[in-house]
Amino acid sequence: MAAVPRTVGEGVVADIDWARLRTAAIDAMHRAYAPYSRFKVGAAALVSDGRVVTGCNVENASYGLTLCAECGLVSDLHRSGGGQLVAFVCVNGDEETIMPCGRCRQLLSEHALPGMRLQATSGVRTIEELLPDAFGPRDLDEVGR
Ligand code: THU
């Protein structure tokens, strides 16, 4: 049974088990399908109910169709019951932390609890630090449709 993460203040989570998340990301990375770039990526995130969701990159002979590891992770989030992401890490084939690409920051932002922590190459950052002034679902309500 997964321990529900303790939230402090505005959705900020205390006591994140980064080692557990890294292990899950490394495990996912080993399942990556990256025959074209040979750059394997694994991602793992903690969900607000204590679940850990993961994803790996899946490339395609039509290169532009590549699915980043974060795409698989968001799919895993919804497949396994939904919820909001509270902590995230992704790694390369050398098991080193890498930054989520710009598109994937947008993808993560839609499913993040405000204040979601990411393990960045410069230390732990929030999603708002990595994607300031983000466009999101609320922007769609601003216009009459
Ligand atoms: N990649 C990811 O999976 N996530 C990122 O955030 C950055 C890039 C993948 C896509 C491609 O398969 C490989 O890394 C090289 O760009």
Sum up the structure in keywords:
145 residues, alpha+beta, five-stranded mixed β-sheet, two-stranded antiparallel sheet, 4 helices, binds tetrahydrodeoxyuridine
Précis, in short:
Helix content is 25%, strand content 24%.
Descriptive account of the structure:
The chain is an alpha+beta fold. 25% of the residues lie in helices and 24% in strands. The chain has helices at residues 18-29, 69-79, 102-110, 127-130; strands spanning 7-8, 12-13, 42-47, 52-56, 85-91, 112-120, 123-126. It has a 5-stranded mixed β-sheet with strand order 4-3-5-6-7. The chain is globular. The model has no long low-confidence stretch (mean pLDDT 93). Bound molecules: tetrahydrodeoxyuridine (THU). Tetrahydrodeoxyuridine (THU) binds next to helix 2.
Mean pLDDT over the residues = 93
How are the strands ordered across the major sheet? 4-3-5-6-7
Molecular shape: globular
* Total helical segments: 4
Order of helices and strands: EEHEEHEHEEH
Give the strand tally: 7
Structural class: alpha+beta
Q: What Rg, in angstroms, do the CA atoms define?
A: 15 Å
**Low-confidence segments, ≥5 residues, pLDDT <50?**
none
Helix content: 10-25%
> How widely separated are the two ends?
44 Å
Bound molecule types: tetrahydrodeoxyuridine
Q: What fraction strand?
A: 15-25%
Q: How many strands, what sense, and barrel or not for the largest sheet?
A: 5 strands, mixed
